[in-house]
Amino acid sequence: MAAEDVATTRVGRPRSERARRAVLHAVDDLLVDVGYAAMTMKGIAERAGVGRQTLYRWWTTKAEILLEAIVDDVAEDLTTPGCPEAADDLLTYLRALTEFLVAAPAGLAYRALVGEAQHDPAVRGLVHGADLLDTSARAVLDRVRPAVPAMPSPDLCAAQFVGPVVYRVFTAQAFSDEELREHVRTLLASWSQR
Amino acid sequence: MAAEDVATTRVGRPRSERARRAVLHAVDDLLVDVGYAAMTMKGIAERAGVGRQTLYRWWTTKAEILLEAIVDDVAEDLTTPGCPEAADDLLTYLRALTEFLVAAPAGLAYRALVGEAQHDPAVRGLVHGADLLDTSARAVLDRVRPAVPAMPSPDLCAAQFVGPVVYRVFTAQAFSDEELREHVRTLLASWSQR
Amino acid sequence: MAAEDVATTRVGRPRSERARRAVLHAVDDLLVDVGYAAMTMKGIAERAGVGRQTLYRWWTTKAEILLEAIVDDVAEDLTTPGCPEAADDLLTYLRALTEFLVAAPAGLAYRALVGEAQHDPAVRGLVHGADLLDTSARAVLDRVRPAVPAMPSPDLCAAQFVGPVVYRVFTAQAFSDEELREHVRTLLASWSQR
Amino acid sequence: MAAEDVATTRVGRPRSERARRAVLHAVDDLLVDVGYAAMTMKGIAERAGVGRQTLYRWWTTKAEILLEAIVDDVAEDLTTPGCPEAADDLLTYLRALTEFLVAAPAGLAYRALVGEAQHDPAVRGLVHGADLLDTSARAVLDRVRPAVPAMPSPDLCAAQFVGPVVYRVFTAQAFSDEELREHVRTLLASWSQR
DNA sequence: ATCTAACCGAGACGGTACGTCACGTCTTACA
DNA sequence: TGTAAGACGTGACGTACCGTCTCGGTTAGAT
Fold it and tell me: Residues of A51-87 as b/e, b for ≥16 C-beta within 10 angstroms?
C-alpha cells in the first residue's frame, strides 16, 4: 500500500501545468499566425513565455507539441449529429470533414502533420499512433451500417469514404458540394449491392 | 527578324547543361541517401559540384528542383500496359501506384512534395500545377470507360479510384493486395449500376 | 544574557557539517579533475551529492567555495622549516613557492583565483581580503631580518622577494633553480648594502 | 613564377577587412563598457554588426580576439622616452607600467588575459607566445645596461624589474610612488655591486 | 508530544550563451 | 553573362549552466 505511494510520489519540483498549457496555446496561435513551416521551437518558447529547455524536456519536435495541442479539437470538430437517412448522415460528415481540412485550425494542423510525416519517420510514427480521422469516420459508418447490407471491411470502408476527400484537399482541389453528394451516392450504391 | 534574335538569343555565356544535369542527379541521389528533410540547397550544390549561386539562379526551392528531377520518372513509373478485362486493368494500375508510393524513389519524392505542399503555399502551387498522378490514372479510366456504363465525372472517378490508396499510404498503412482487389470490385460495382 | 542566546542560537534545523565538507571536497576534486574553468556550481552540487540551493545558501560563487577549500592548504604548503643561513632560508621558501604554484592543487587554485580576480571585482575583494602568500613570505623575511642590515619596508621586501617568482609563473615561464639562486643572491646583496 | 601566383591568389570571396576591424573595435569597446567576464562571443558579434560564424571562422575564443586587438596598444603604451640617468629611466618605465596596469584599457585587457591564462591552457599558450611586457621592459634595461656593471641575465633582470610591480597589481595593492622609487634604488644597488 | 522554523535532496522553471548549421546574398577570378 | 568558390549577415538548432522556485522530508529548539 505504501509502496504505491513511493511509486507515485515524485521527488523534486513537479511539472508546471501552467507552462504546459501556455505551450499548447502558443502552438495553436502560431499555427494560425505564421503557419507550420515558420513555426520554430524558439518561437514557441518565446510566445509561451517559457524556457527553451522546458520545451525539449517534455517534447522532442514541434510536431509532437502540435499533435498534443490539437488531438482533442480534431475529435470535436469531426463529431456530427447523425441523421435518420444514411445518405444524409454520410454527407453531413463529409461536409464537416471538408470544412475541417480546408479552414479549421485543427484541420490545418492535421494536414501539416500528415504532410510532415511523409518525410520525417518520427512524425510518421506519431501520426500513425494517434487516430485522428479514423475514429470519427468509423462512428458514422457504424451508424449507417444497419441500413447498408454489403459494406466491405471497416478499414476499406473508411478509406473509400474519406480517402477521395482527403486526397483532393491534399492535391489542392477540394470537392464541390455536388461532387460530395455524388460521391456518397455511388458509395452507397456499391455498398448496397447484393 | 533581328528583333526575334534579340528575344531568343542571349548574350554572354549560355546556361551550362552540364550543371543542370549534375543538379538533378544530385537531388535524386540525396533524396534516397539522406531523405527530403535533410536535403539542403547547400548539400545539393556540394554534391553536384556546382556553385550555390547557380542553384538560386535557376530554381527557388529544393521542391522546385525535385519536381523537375522526378516529373518524367513519375509518368514512366505509372504507365501500365492495359488488360482486356477492366478489373485487371484497374488493379494493375493500383498495384503499380502502391509500389510507386511505398518504394520508388520518384514516389518518395511525390509524397515529400505533396507533404510539403500542406504547409508551404509556394510548393502547393507547384504541385497543383504539375499533374503527377491524374494523367496516368485518367488514361487507365479512359481505357475501361467503354466497359463501365455508369461512371461519374472523370474528376470524381479519379479521386474515388486513387484517393483511398493514396490516403492509406499517407496515413502510414498501405492497402494489402486483398484490399486492393476488393476496392476495385466495389468500385466497378457502383460504376456499373444503372 | 538571554539576548546573547537569541543572537547565537538559531531555531530550526542547524547547518549540516556533512554537506559543507562534501562541498569543499568536491571542489578540491573537481579542480584537479576538470580545472577551474570547467568547474560549475551545478557540477559541484552533483559531485558533492548536495542540493543546488544549499550551495547558494552558504556561498555566492565558486571562487568563494574554492577559497574556503584551500586557504588552510596554502599556509601549510608554504611553511618552510628555516635554516641558519639566510640565503638558504630564502631559497628554500622560493623553491617551495615555485613547486606550490606549478604543481600543488592548492597552488593551481591560488593561480585560478588570482587570475579570476583580474576580471571579476567580487573575486578581487575576496582574494585581497585573504592573505595567501604574504603571511608565509613575511615569516621567512622576519627570520632573516636580523642578518640583513638594510631591508626595505616589509611590504616592498615581500614584493621584491616573491613578485618575480609569481610573475614568471603567471607568464608561463617558471624560474629555473639557477635563476632562483641568483635571485636570492642579488636580493641579499641589495638588502645588505650600507 | 606562375606557381607563386597560384599560391597567392585565393579562390572565392576574400576576407572582409571591414568585418575584421569592426570586431577588434567592438572588443575594445566592450572591455571598457562591460568588462572581460561579461564579454561574450555573441555580444561581440552583435556590437560589431557581424555574423557569429565570422567570429568563429577567424578566432576561436574571445581571448584570441582581445589579444589581437590590444597587442599594438600594449607596445605603444609602454614605450618610454629614456632619460640620461639610469634611475630616472627605470622609474619612468615603472610609473608607465603601473599606470598601464591600473588604468589603461590595454592594461585591463593584459590583466584579463594573463588572468584567464591561469585556468585556460589555450589562453596560456596564446599569452606566452605574444611578448607583451618583456620587449618593452628589456628595451629599458638595455638602455641602462652600460651604466650598471653587474646586471644578471636579461631574463632574471626583467623579472626582478617588473615582477614585483605586476605582482602587487595582481594582488590588488599597487605600489605607491615612494615604493616604486625605493624599488628602483635597491634594484640598482644590487645590480651595481661588483 | 506536538509545533514551527530552517535546513536538506531533488529537479523543474525562465533565461541566455554556447558552437554549429543552413539560409540567401555578395564578391572574387576565371571561362 | 555564367560559373565555382567561399566569405558575409541572419537566425534556428539542441545543449549547458545560470540562479530561483517548489516539492517532500529531516532535525532541531520552543511550546
Answer: eeebbeeebebbbbbbbbbbeebbbebbebeebeebe
Residue type, C2: A
Q: Cβ C152–D186 below 8 Å, yes or no?
A: yes
Phi, psi (degrees; rounded to nearest 5) at B141: -60, -35
Share of chain B above pLDDT 70, in %: 94
Please name the helix (run of DSSP H) or strand (run of DSSP E) that holds residue C100, with its range, or none: helix C86-103
Report pTM: 0.90
Q: Write down the residue that cell numbers 444497419 correspond to.
A: A146
Long-range contacts of B31-38 (CB under 8 A, 24+ apart): B31/B66, B31/B105, B31/B108, B31/B109, B31/B112, B32/B105, B32/B108, B35/A119, B36/A118, B36/A119, B36/B62, B36/B66, B36/B108, B36/B109, B36/B112, B36/B116, B37/A119, B37/A120
- Quote the CA–CA distance of A43 and C135 in Å, as a whole number: 57
**Contacts by residues A87-91 (CB-CB < 8 Å, ≥ 24 positions apart):** A87/A184, A87/A185, A87/A188, A89/A140, A89/A143, A89/A144, A90/A140, A90/A144, A90/A161, A90/A184, A90/A187, A90/A188, A91/A180, A91/A181, A91/A184
pLDDT in tens, B128-151: 988 789 999 999 999 999 999 889
Cα separation of the two ends of chain D: 60
Chain A interface with B: residues with Cβ < 8 Å: 35-37, 111-112, 114-120, 124-125, 127-128, 133, 152-153, 155-156, 159-160, 162-168, 170-173, 175, 179, 182-183, 186-187, 189-191, 193
Q: Are B45 and B63 in contact (CB under 8 A)?
A: no
pLDDT digits (tens, 9 = 90+) for B40-75: 999 999 999 999 999 999 999 999 999 999 999 999
Backbone angles phi, psi at B18, to 5 degrees: -60, -45
Nucleotide nearest to D46 (CA to C1'): F9
Beta-carbon contacts of residue B192 (< 8 Å; ≥ 6 apart): B148, B149, B150
Where would I find the H helices in chain D? Answer: 2-8, 17-34, 41-48, 52-58, 62-77, 86-103, 105-117, 121-129, 134-144, 154-170, 177-192
Distances (CA, A) of A74 to A105, A154, A156, B21, B159: 9, 20, 22, 45, 24
